[in-house]
Design a protein that fits this description.
mainly alpha
Length: 213
């Protein structure tokens, strides 16, 4: 089972590189959806006597994180005919290089900390750190409002993995509350995108500097 967990987390780490190097929004959405599905399944792979309620929370988390949120974002860009990212603040090749450095550093840091975890997998903490930092990187390195939202969702995936790393029994309710906040934020984002699109004709956040009171 540990091999299956490590394989799944290794795919998540690889998807971080794909996300940082993605130039098209639909592809980035699919990557974030894949991450959401995999990190939601990790508690089931770890096991450790999950109760029926814990399994229900995990399945609900998988549906919201892997299907509902990505679908809501995809519908938002489809209705506004937004397919490709604007020029990022940090180039895609530089972002990809930064992702490689990030994963190596996260692996080193994760192995340096001798912390009690819910599994023998050595990739849980490095994956959590990579998702957290990669999400923050997308927030800072992209001008496109939707890409920034996807970075926020990726960051929240990292928070979920952190909770999974240290506890399987107590993190479900807190995480589900955070997830509902994220879902509400996505709904608000769709409304804001409509107003940004109508005002500036694009979702490039740098154009908002030209707005006057």
């Amino acid at each position: 089972m540990s091999f299956l967990i490590d394989t799944s987390l290794a795919l998540v780490l690889f998807s971080v590189l794909i996300a940082l190097g993605a130039g098209r929004l639909p592809g980035l959405i699919r990557v974030v959806a894949f991450q959401g599905i995999v990190v939601s399944v990790v508690p089931l792979l770890i096991g450790h006597n999950l109760s029926a309620g814990g399994i229900a929370f995990t399945v609900a988390t998988l549906v919201i994180r892997g299907l509902v949120i990505p679908l809501a974002i995809y519908i938002a860009i489809h209705r506004r005919a937004i397919r490709r990212e604007v020029e990022p603040i940090v180039g895609l090749h530089a972002s990809l290089l930064a992702g490689l450095v990030l994963i190596v550093a996260a692996t080193w840091v994760g192995r340096s900390f001798q912390l009690p975890t819910a599994s023998d997998s050595r990739l849980l903490l490095p994956t959590a750190i990579s998702l957290l930092v990669a999400g923050m990187f997308l927030l800072m390195a992209r001008r496109n409002a939707i890409a920034m939202v996807l970075g926020y969702v990726m960051l929240e995936n990292g928070i979920y993995v952190v909770g999974t790393t240290f506890s399987l029994r107590t993190h479900h309710i807190v995480e589900f509350g955070i997830l509902l906040d994220v879902l509400a934020g996505i709904m608000i984002m769709a409304i804001l995108l409509q107003h940004i699109k109508q005002t500036s004709g694009d979702v490039d956040t740098s154009l908002m500097r030209s707005l006057k009171d």
